[in-house]
Amino acid sequence: DTAVSQTPKYLVTQMGNDKSIKCEQNLGHDTMYWYKQDSKKFLKIMFSYNNKELIINETVPNRFSPKSPDKAHLNLHINSLELGDSAVYFCASSETGPNSPLHFGNGTRLTVT
Amino acid sequence: GENVEQHPSTLSVQEGDSAVIKCTYSDSASNYFPWYKQELGKRPQLIIDIRSNVGEKKDQRIAVTLNKTAKHFSLHITETQPEDSAVYFCAASKSNSGYALNFGKGTSLLVTP
After folding, report:
1. What is residue A85's three-state secondary structure?
2. Model confidence over A52-102: pLDDT tens digits?
3. What is the mean pLDDT of chain A?
4. Contacting residues of B for A42, CB less than 8 Å apart
5. Which DSSP symbol is given to B108?
6. Is B47 left (phi over 0), alpha (psi -120 to 50) or beta?
7. For residue A40, what is the DSSP state?
8. Side-chain half-sphere of B6: how many Cα atoms within 13 Å?
9. Distance between CA atoms of B50 and A18, rounded to whole angstroms?
10. Looking at residue B17, what DSSP letter applies?
C-alpha cells in the first residue's frame, strides 16, 4: 500500500520533447514537493505546494511546470527537455507545519538523449 | 545563504565499528534536523530526526546530537552492520519555505564484513 506513488518509474526521451511525471499520496498530507537528485546524488528542492497552492519555486527554469489538481496530487510537466534535465525526480509529501518529515515516492529516473 | 554542509562524503568502516557523520547549517531559523538513508536505487527514508529544543536523541544503534549555538548536528551509528551501507543525508528546515528541507550532499557509508 504505497503512501507516495510516482509514475512512470523510468522515462527515456529525446531532447526537445515534452513529458509529464505524476505523483499521488494517500497519507492525507497537505504539502507536496518535487525534488531533483542529480548524478552526484544531490537532493535539491524544486517546488513546494500546500493545499494546491505554490509555496516555493526554487529558481527552476520555466520549462518545468507543476500542477496540483487537488491536495493529493502533484504532477510535473517538463517542456523542451534538455540533456541536463536527466536526473531522478522525487515527489514527497508532509504534514503541514514545521518539523514534519518528508515521505518520498520511489522516484522517476529521467534520461534525456 | 541557506546551506547544509555534510562531511565526510565517503566513509568506510569495519563491521562492528562506529560511524559518525557531521553537518553544519547556516540558516539560524532552522529548527528541524532529519536524517535520511538512501539505499542504491531506492528512495530516501527517514531514520531519525531532532528538533531544536532537544540536544540529543537515540534510537537503538542510531543517535543524533545537535548544537544550535555552533549550528552543528551529527549522526552516530554504533555497532555497524553491512546492511547499514547506504548514502546518508542530513537536512535542515528552510525558513520561509513552506516546510521544505535543505539537504546536505550525502555521505556514502560502506560497512565491510
Report:
1. helix
2. 788 777 778 999 999 999 989 999 999 999 999 999 999 999 987 667 889
3. 91
4. 103, 105-106
5. E
6. alpha
7. T
8. 27
9. 40
10. S
